[in-house]
Amino acid sequence: MSSIVKVDTIQENTSANGITVDGLNIKDSKLVTANSVIETNLTDNIVTLAKMASGTDGNIISYDASGNPVAIATGNDGQVLTSAGAGQPPAFEAIPGGGKIGQVLQAVKLDTFTCTSASFVDITGLSVAITPSATSSKILIMSSVNGGAANEIHLHFKLLRGSTDILKGNAASNRIRSSISLGPIRNTSQSENFSIQFLDSPSSTDEQTYKIQMQNQGGSVTSHINRSGSDGDNTTFSRNTSSITVMEVLA
Predict the structure, then answer these.
(1) What is the domain partition of the chain in residue ranges?
(2) Global model pTM greater than 0.70
(3) 40: helix, coil or strand?
(4) Sheet with strand 24-27: strands edge to edge
(5) 99: closest CA among 137, 130, 141, 143?
(6) Which one of 1.10.3720.10, 3.40.920.10, 2.60.120.1340, 3.20.20.20 gives the CATH number of domain 101-249?
(7) What is the pLDDT of residue 28?
(8) CA end-to-end span of the chain, whole Å?
(9) What DSSP character marks residue 239?
């Protein structure tokens, strides 16, 4: 059986800015009215998650330019939260693709190649074709080549995209314009190694062929790829490999 508590007196206490119930004064600032809560009367850490308004799964609470709370819309799988700058709430956005490797292709030359030309010629088998996925992509070319000669000469090499030289020194009178040179080759029993690295911007989605060319110092002199000049058939001498690798670097 419920009981009834009798309140003897309720009176206004204007000086205390409140009301008095049986001698107990309750100020207006202590009252909770519809849709209002006095912040100073809330104990720290008193509002639990259960008392917060329901929202959308995945939303994040932030603040807008006026300092008011705002819900950041849920992003898609794989997106990351990024800053939109001062005065703007952050947003979920796709991870930028810059710097990612889109594809890697390689050509490895295992056999030997002989050159007697005083002008640049293709090294057979030392080329690779790649089709960029976007015009904004760059192509990283890395090549490692072994060369030797039967005489004390210089060997010159250059990198091309199709028929276009893309890496060579500036013109300087009668000097050879090349990507790199070896020599003079002094020990005919050895082959020497060199490497070329270059980041090209073909600005095209057409197939691109990258290759290495070489020339001798004098057309009557013989040089070789993947072997020494004398190439004796014993354990003093070696046969080597050369390669060219291309990578598409996405913008």
Answers:
(1) 10-93, 101-249
(2) no
(3) helix
(4) 10-13, 18-21, 24-27
(5) 137
(6) 2.60.120.1340
(7) 54
(8) 79
(9) B
